[in-house]
Amino acid sequence: MTPESQPVPQNIWRFEVLLYASLLLDTLTSLFRTMPDDMSESAASFAYFANAVLILLFVFLVGIAARHRKNWARIVLMVALGLSVLSLAGELSFSGLQFESLLELISTGMTAAGLYYSFTGDARGWFERSSG
C-alpha cells in the first residue's frame, strides 16, 4: 500500500479542513478590503494579485502536507503562521480591533488550531513515516 492510498488520520483531516476554511475566510475578506486612498491603481492591482498568489500557494502547501505527507510544507505553514501573528499584532496595536482585523484574528486562530492538529494524536505517525 502506497502512502497516498492509506486512509487519512482524523487529525490530518481536521488540519486540512481548518486550514482550507481559514484560506476561504482570507479570500472572502480580501474581496472586501479597501486599499488606502493614496495608493495608485496599479499598486492596488499588484497587491490584490500578490494576495491571490499567496492564497493559492498556501492551498498548495496544505495539500502537499495533508495528502503527500511532506513535513517541510507543514513547517513552511508554521513559519507563515508566525509571520501572520506578528503582522496581526502590529495591526492591532496600530489601529485596534476592527471588523477586518477581527476576521484576520479568527482566520489566524483557525490556522493555529489546524496546525496544532497536524502535530498531535494520530497525525504524528503520518509525517514520521514519510520520506520528505
Any overview of this molecule?
By secondary structure, the chain is mainly alpha-helical. It has one domain. It has 5 helices and no strands. Helix 3 packs antiparallel against helix 4. The longest helix has 28 residues. The protein is elongated and about 50 Å long.
What is the strand content?
under 5%
Structural class: mainly alpha
| Poorly predicted runs | none
Total DSSP helices: 5
Mean pLDDT level: 89
For the record, give the distance between the C-alpha atoms at the N and C termini, rounded to a whole number.
Answer: 18 Å
N-to-C series of helices and strands: HHHHH
Rg, please?
Answer: 17 Å
User: Looking at the structure, what is the overall shape?
Assistant: elongated
Using DSSP, what is the number of strands?
Answer: 0
In total, how many domains does the architecture comprise?
Answer: 1
In helices, the fraction of residues equals: over 70%
Largest beta sheet, briefly?
A: none
